[in-house]
Design brief:
This protein has five helices and three strands. The chain has about 180 residues and is of the alpha/beta class. The protein has a three-stranded parallel beta sheet.
């Protein structure tokens, strides 16, 4: 696995840096991985990336990063509910939009509190079509808006509030709780 990962990450890194040396190589957005693969990614990428579809980022679940001094970004996460007409919650479910907003805030705080995580990307701005997206039929309630551009006010309000504290939280955690 180490040999394969080395060839993969080195080949991509070398090609990207040859033609575009001033941009970051964000890795492969791991969803499944081994410690060996993550160590190799840390050697060849500028940022290690994961898709983390969980209720939150628990430090105890991320011992794979022990001893690695490399920034980490979350390429995808979401949570959904069924209380507004959709038929599927997505990969992480909540009972309703209020719980979804609360989980979003907890998730973002858990990322900000981890010293290696430097960013996160919510998977989708709007819900998927009720009748399913082309190719696979996925029809999740995972957006900040419905497919008709109506906002999920609970989620938008929660996001505004938690985003206003992210930099302070992360700085405090990175400085051992001092916030300076």
């Amino acid at each position: 696995m180490t040999e394969f990962a080395t060839r993969y990450f080195r080949t991509i890194r070398d090609a990207l840096k040859k033609d575009d040396p001033h941009h970051l190589y964000l890795g492969s957005r791991f969803s499944g991985y081994t410690r060996e693969e993550v160590l190799v990614a840390a050697e060849y990428t500028d940022v290690i990336s994961f898709n983390i579809y969980r209720a939150r980022v628990n430090p105890a679940d991320w011992t794979v990063l022990d001893g690695i001094d490399k920034p980490v970004v979350i390429g995808e996460f979401h949570m959904g509910a069924l209380d507004r007409g959709m038929f599927h919650t997505g990969l992480v479910s909540t009972p309703d939009q209020a719980a979804r907003a609360a989980m979003y805030q907890d998730y973002v705080r858990s990322v900000a509190d981890h010293p290696l995580f430097v960013g996160y990307h919510f998977f989708k701005f709007n819900d998927e079509p009720l009748t399913g997206r082309p190719r696979d039929g996925e029809n999740y309630n995972i957006g900040f808006t419905t497919v008709t551009d109506s906002v999920y006010r609970e989620l938008v309000t929660a996001a505004k509030a938690v985003h206003s504290e992210v930099y302070t939280r992360h700085r405090a955690r990175a400085n051992g709780g001092t916030g300076n």
